[in-house]
Design goal:
Length: 316
C-alpha cells in the first residue's frame, strides 16, 4: 500500500503477502498520519519483491517526511523471512518525520533469525530532521523461537539517530549543508530539511535482539529519556570472551558488545533491566546525566569510564 496525503488514517486492517505500507509526505508540518490497530503478517516473503528492489530495503511501514505521526497498537509479525540476499529488514522505519509517537505495537520475527543481512531494526526513527520521538510500550523481538545469535547481522530492536549511522539500508542519504541544514536524497525524492530538536523518549518497551550491535541505540543532538525498559541482547557465541583470545575492548579485534548505547547531549536512564552485553549500558556523554535504579548483569559506563559514586550504589 502506498499513499500521499496531507492527512491519512489507516486502521483496523489485515495484510499479508507482498504488500507493505509506504507513505511519502511533503515535509509540511500540517501533515498528520495515524496507523492503528492493523495486523501486518507475513509481509515481504521474498526480497525479489519489486518495491524491495526499488528501495533496496524491506520495511513493513515506511514513512518519509510526514509532520505528525502516530503508530499505535499494530502487529507486525513474520516479516521479511526470506533467507536469500542481504537486503536490510526493518519493521517500522520513519525518515525525516517531525513529531513521532510509536506506542503499543508488537514486532516479532523481523528478518530471518540465523542469516546475516544488512543493518536492520525493529523500529528505526532516523533524521535529520526530527523534533520529538516517543517510543513507548512496544514489544520488539527479532525472533520468538531462537535465543542465541549465530550470524553477524547488525539488528537493533530500537534505533533513534542519524540516517548515516544506520547505513544506506533505508535507501536515503543525508548531505549536510550550512547552518544545520541537510538534503535528503533517494531515487524517488530530494528533500531539504533542518536538523531538528531531536528529543527522544523510550519508555516501557520490551526489546530482545539477536545481534552484534546494541539491542537499543539512541544517538541524538538533543536529550534522551530511557526508562522502564527491559532489554536483552543475545550476541553470537564468537563474541564470548573465551573466543576472543588476547583481544581487548578498544582493539579492532574486539567486538564492542554493548546492550544499550545512549549517545545524546543529556541522558536520563532509570529503572531499566538490561542483560546480555559485556557492557550492559553505555552513556557516551559524561554530563549532564542521571543513572538510577537500573538492574544490569555487567558494567554501566558513562563518558568512557565505569559508573562511579554517587550513582553506582544506586544501580545493581
Amino acid at each position: 500500500m502506498a499513499a500521499r496525503s496531507p492527512a491519512t488514517a489507516l486502521s483496523g486492517s489485515a495484510a499479508s503477502g507482498s504488500s507493505c505500507v509506504r507513505i511519502l509526505g511533503r515535509g509540511n508540518s500540517a501533515q498528520h498520519l495515524r496507523i492503528a490497530g492493523n495486523q501486518l503478517l507475513g509481509l515481504i516473503p521474498s526480497v525479489a519483491n519489486p518495491d524491495v528492489v526499488l528501495l533496496n530495503v524491506a520495511v513493513g511501514v515506511l514513512l518519509t517526511a510526514v509532520g505528525l505521526v502516530e503508530i499505535e497498537g499494530n502487529v507486525i509479525k513474520d516479516f521479511g523471512l526470506d533467507t536469500t540476499g542481504n537486503i536490510s529488514r526493518t519493521g517500522i522505519g520513519l525518515i525525516a518525520c517531525n513529531s513521532v509517537r510509536v506506542a503499543g505495537n508488537q514486532l516479532i520475527n523481523i528478518g530471518p533469525a540465523s542469516v546475516t543481512f544488512g543493518p536492520s531494526a525493529g523500529i528505526a526513527v532516523t533524521g535529520p530532521p526530527f523534533d520529538r520521538a516517543e517510543v513507548v510500550d512496544n514489544i520488539i523481538r527479532r525472533s520468538d523461537s531462537v535465543t542465541q545469535a549465530t550470524d553477524s547481522t547488525i539488528w537493533r530492536a530500537l534505533y533513534i539517530g542519524p540516517l548515516a549511522t544506520f547505513g544506506e539500508s533505508t535507501g536515503f542519504s543525508a548531505v549536510p549543508l550550512a547552518n544545520n541544514q541537510f538534503v535528503l536524497v533517494s531515487s524517488a525524492a530530494v528533500l531539504f530539511v533542518n536538523e531538528g530538536q531531536q528529543l527522544a523518549t523510550a519508555h516501557g518497551n520490551f526489546m530482545e535482539a539477536l545481534s552484534i550491535a546494541p539491542a537499543a541505540e539512541v544517538s541524538t543532538t538533543g536529550s534522551c529519556i530511557f526508562t522502564n525498559n527491559q532489554v536483552a541482547l543475545h550476541a553470537p557465541s564468537f563474541f564470548e570472551p573465551s573466543q576472543l583470545g588476547n583481544a581487548r575492548e578498544g582493539s579492532v579485534f574486539f567486538p564492542g558488545r554493548t546492550a544499550v548505547l545512549l549517545a545524546s547531549q543529556s541522558v536520563i536512564a532509570s529503572n531499566n533491566i538490561v542483560t546480555g552485553g559485556f557492557m550492559d549500558l553505555d552513556i557516551a556523554q559524561s554530563s549532564p546525566f542521571t543513572v538510577l535504579g537500573n538492574i544490569t548483569g555487567n558494567q554501566i559506563r558513562v563518558g568512557g569510564v565505569a559508573l562511579t559514586t554517587p550513582w553506582s550504589p544506586l544501580n545493581t
